[in-house]
Specification:
By secondary structure, the chain is of the alpha/beta class. The protein contains 16 helices and 8 strands. Strand 4, helix 4 and strand 5 form a beta-alpha-beta unit. It is globular.
């Protein structure tokens, strides 16, 4: 099983927006002439928080493909799995993101730091292959959720050892310099990121030629959602070297659902405000699973009383990722990002609201993925 050159991870916390996500990729191909393979991704952490099962993601993907008459490749990603939780994903998934960040050492030689992680990746890969068949899934190796970026020299070593381990890796997710916080833009030295990204593309090219890794091996960007300032850099470089890319956008769909509710009608706006107010009171609890990938300035968060006074436009502009808008508040956006647990707990109110306002929400999701994300890679 071989994934196409360009692929897009369309994460969906509540498995309700598959059609809108797929429509965004179809529209992007019509507008920009670039085909992205959709990959519906949802991690074990997200399933646990929301109370869902991997097969629900599979059903969402299959239903979206059928509804739009889509004829291309598509995948369901067991996102950030390990040996302890992979079995629940075997039946539903055909893309496995093997996360071995916890096995990377902090000191010592490259062998001491990275070889235990690569050996663990091999164990997980062979376990999946035994259960599913080696030709029936795509393998990604993820090493991004660590504190220190991997240098191009370290990536070269990692890929060489992955090849020796016999893992037919098709996407690799290294840690880059800078902050890749959830739901907001990249924070760091863009020139340094550009150097690292370009060097990593060249390292991948060498690894394919010298190590026998799959010829479609490509970089995977986590978290790729809303990293608008580096999208033009990545788009230019993958075109320069004729390389593919995989971009994961895990939480941006949930944020657009929240915006859609806010602008849909007064009752839905009240629900969006209720989610925020509850999240504000439980911020520490909600932030724990995402502590390494969010930076919320509590002093910048509006009070419940202030939010209650907002109209729909004010709420939407505060949340929507538009850095040129004076109302945009990245701390507000990050708190909403981790508040999907509250939405799940309000399921008797939340899920009917999603169904009722699917058209409004759908427009927000499609515009976000097509015109704010993919346009920056391949558009004007």
């Amino acid at each position: 099983m071989k994934i196409g050159k360009y692929s897009f991870g369309v994460g969906d916390r509540f498995a309700r927006e598959g059609v809108n996500q797929l429509r965004a990729l179809v529209e992007a191909e019509q507008k920009f002439g670039v085909h992205f393979v959709p990959v519906w991704n949802k991690s074990n952490r997200e399933h646990q928080i929301v109370g869902t099962e991997p097969m629900e993601t599979r059903r969402e993907a299959d239903a979206a493909v059928a509804a739009l008459g889509y004829q291309g490749q598509y995948f369901v990603d067991a996102d950030h799995i390990n040996l302890g939780n992979v079995d629940r994903f075997i039946e539903a998934s055909d893309f496995f993101t093997i996360d071995v960040a916890d096995y990377i050492g902090h000191t010592g030689s490259m062998e001491e730091r990275f070889l235990p992680a690569i050996r663990e990746a091999g164990r997980i890969y062979r376990h999946i292959a035994e259960k599913k068949g080696a030709d029936n899934f795509v393998t990604e190796v993820s090493m991004d959720e660590v504190d220190e970026a991997q240098t191009p020299e370290e990536l070269r070593y990692i890929l060489r050892e992955i090849a020796r381990e016999g893992i037919p890796v098709q996407t690799i997710a290294p840690k880059f310099t800078g902050r890749f916080n959830k739901g907001v833009d990249y924070r760091g030295d863009i020139a340094q990121f550009e150097r690292e990204f370009e060097q990593d593309l060249l390292v991948i090219d060498e690894a394919v030629k010298t190590c026998g890794l799959p010829d479609n091996l490509k970089l995977s960007i986590h978290s790729g959602s809303d990293k608008f300032s580096i999208y033009p850099v990545m788009g230019r470089l993958i075109r320069k070297y004729d390389k593919g890319i995989h971009i994961k956008t895990a939480g941006t769909t949930w944020l657009e659902e929240n915006i859609g509710l806010a602008v849909a009608d007064p009752d839905a706006l009240r629900l969006a405000k209720k989610i925020y107010v509850n999240a504000l009171g439980r911020m520490e609890e909600l932030a724990v699973p995402y502590a390494t990938v969010i930076d919320i300035d509590a002093a910048a968060l509006p009070s419940p009383e202030e939010v209650e006074s907002w109209d729909a436009e004010t709420y939407a502009r505060t949340l929507r990722h538009n850095p040129s808008d004076p109302l945009y508040n990245p701390s507000f956006r990050q708190l909403i990002h981790v508040s999907y647990k509250i939405a799940a707990e309000l399921g008797d109110e939340f899920y009917p609201a999603l169904e009722k306002h699917t058209d409004v929400i759908g427009r927000e999701i499609t515009e976000n993925l097509c015109d704010r994300h993919i346009r920056r890679l391949f558009g004007e």
